[in-house]
Fold this sequence. Notes:
The chain is an alpha+beta fold and 309 residues long. The chain is 32% helix and 27% strand. It contains nine helices and 13 strands. A hairpin with a 7-residue loop joins strand 1 (21-23) and strand 2 (31-32). Helix 1 packs parallel to helix 3 (96-113) and helix 2 (59-77) packs parallel to helix 5.
Amino acid sequence: MERAFIDWLKSQTEANRHPNLILGIGDDAAIVDLQDGSTVISTDMLADGVHFVVGQTPLKLIGRKALAVNLSDLAAMGARPVCAVVSLMLPKALGIDEAKEILTGVLQLANEYGVAIVGGDTNRWDGPLVINVAITGLVDRVTPPSSTWRLDGAQADDVILVSGDFGHSISEKHLTFTPHVALALFLRDKYYVHAATDITDSLTIDLAAIAKQSEVGMELDAAAIPISKSALEKYKNDPPAALRSALQDGEDFELAVVVDRETAKRIVEDPELPCKMTAVGKMTSKRKFVLVDPNGTRGSLEIKGYEHD
């Protein structure tokens, strides 16, 4: 099965050859030219019962999500995607046709984002479906005004900007979200970003990670948090629950950047911005996590989210 699957995958990847790719699928390893910038590498492993449910989730969407979460990681670093390797641990109940269906979801998204699928591995076992993607990106040396984004660059009085909306992603968004690569590259090339992350575990957990690594505090404005339509509908009779969903639900995969006040104003008002961004709070000199409610009352912000056990 493995050789037939490799031959099929090779045939699917030969049509659109990536400019950085020297040798792709079919040999013992791939050869990629990564000399034109800082190399960014990330990997994510997704498993049945934790990140999706086989039988309830279309196999193409499982493959799509496996690559999408890695693209979101590159966006959080301000990196341009280059190539990825994909490894499958297939349950014995699934065969080559199912494997092809999963990889079709990967390949469709890879073609959309210009990612070369350069290899991987396939095995079968008695356990659940597991898929792992390792991705490589570049931060071009010539890119002004900032280089690779990190968690530890936030400063007191910086503004927190987020894309999209938050809450109840389990309804479907976690399978169909758009990785914010275009937004990240737009911001990276035009503005100086102090810190950035993608929102995976929850809005509070991931923003708190920036604050902790930057050794600052954080203050969020409850009235400014963009709550998803799905969360608003689910909790239409319980606004506080809708807000908690936006703050604490995981797998929204939106982009958050931390910038100075003037830059935040310029970004929000930029007519060429690929998607809307919202100011949801600020970093503070006091190392506390604060939530300001719609009435202006300040209280402790609970740092809670989705745990990938």
